[in-house]
Amino acid sequence: MTVSIERRVEVPHPRELFLGGHWTKPLSAHTIPVVSPIDGSVLCELPEVSRDDAARAIAAARAVAESGSWSVLSPADRANAVAKYLDELEAMLPQINDAWVNEVGVPAQVAVAFGGAMSLAGRDSIRLARELPFTEVRETAGGRVVVTREPLGPVLAILTYNGPTTEIGLSVIPALLVGNPVVIKLPPENRMVGHFLAEAAARAGLPEGLLSVVTAETEVSKYLVAHPDIAAVHFTGGTEIGGEVAATTAGRLACSTLELGGKSAAIVLDDADLDKTAPLLMAMTTFQGQICNALTRVLVSRTRYDEVVARLTTEFGRLKVGDPRDEETNFGPLPSERVRARAEGYIERAVAAGATVAFGGRRPAEFPRGRYLEPTLLTNVANSMEVAQNEIFGPVFCVIAYDDIEDAIRIANDSRFGLAGAVFTEDMDAAQAIAARVHVGTFWINATAPCLTAPYGGMKDSGHGRVGGPEGFFDLTEIKQIVVGP
């Protein structure tokens, strides 16, 4: 497959905001430069979203919810309208990927793969909207009861810079399909992407007020979360901010779905075939380690520890660090200096605590203007070290030794996170037994990719609620019973 990413991105409506289903002038004249993490150049300047602009988005969503103009449509009619939006998103994926690669540094082939994930998840939700019953009639001893699924109201969908397209398929499209108006809130790193997501909605002709797209800093984001007209918040991001979102929404008894961080462990059993396992483990380096379910802790028995470290070091050396717009690159820059400095701090403190840098750990000299950091493999790591306990969201990966299978399971569960985990082995009975004991929302056996058409989410500090499948599809609805008397 050939991937072509443009060096120059023409952003649609660069002086406007997409509020209430149409492009409009911002209330503030202030603009914010979008700086490339690849070479530090200014890509463009886009409008700042003010609190008053955010209020306009919420007012439009509230008007749609109160009028019932969207929720009164049949599930099939909503599915037809949302399918047009997904059609436009798919048609614009080349431009969306151009923007995403240039402003965040995601490798081109990763961007293309995530676009495919958006399509898969979105199409499955459209199928569910047409097939699942929103109304069920039950005959009971007291008479007939009609059980209905109804929309919550305005939904705030807070997406992350590391997967905006996939999140559209997993959270925004289902929220629309079940009858909710949606305000999409993107992080500052996705300013250009946001304009393309909005333009797709404009071209699809979604109803007035149904969808708004805002890119906001902390102050406006907090305003959106705290607004009393927001009925539910779907948040994807870090655990600390997710906790703040949960506390804010709980204060007014609003719903929240939280897809939070992880520190996932891969257990490599002694019978694992390294020729199969090592390439799978390298999925942890996808998007420079900025994947919430990345297997950033590799647990290996002391018997095979040196062998696995040597093989992973070889695999790390094969990574092509470079310009993410180039098709051959599979490891690009980090989106901001803050993210790079945070990762470097973890490396420095880990070494001071006794860890060894087996590979990487430095800024590549050949990219002085970009925000690059080499993929970094740490050995001699104790699970109690902060580098093994905290989500870094960067290119820092640990290899941890275990004594036996019981010790491996203990280490895997010795984390406040519970997003994902994996085991690599030829023994399926052992694999199933381990899967039952590791406390995570997704567990892989000789695999590393989640199923987007099944419920996905985390346990413990990795969040609550699910996206994907029938369970996630109905997550942003209320259940009502209508009792019909004799």
Automatic annotation (TrEMBL):
GO terms for molecular function: oxidoreductase activity, acting on the aldehyde or oxo group of donors, NAD or NADP as acceptor. InterPro entries: Ald_DH/histidinol_DH (IPR016161), Ald_DH_C (IPR016163), Ald_DH_CS_GLU (IPR029510), Ald_DH_N (IPR016162), Aldehyde_DH_dom (IPR015590). Gene3D superfamilies: Aldehyde Dehydrogenase, Chain A, domain 1 (3.40.605.10), Aldehyde Dehydrogenase, Chain A, domain 2 (3.40.309.10). Keywords: Oxidoreductase. Pfam families: Aldedh. SUPFAM superfamilies: ALDH-like. Residues 23-482 form the Aldehyde dehydrogenase domain. The active site is at E259. Belongs to the aldehyde dehydrogenase family. It comes from the Bacteria. This is Betaine-aldehyde dehydrogenase. It comes from Saccharopolyspora spinosa.
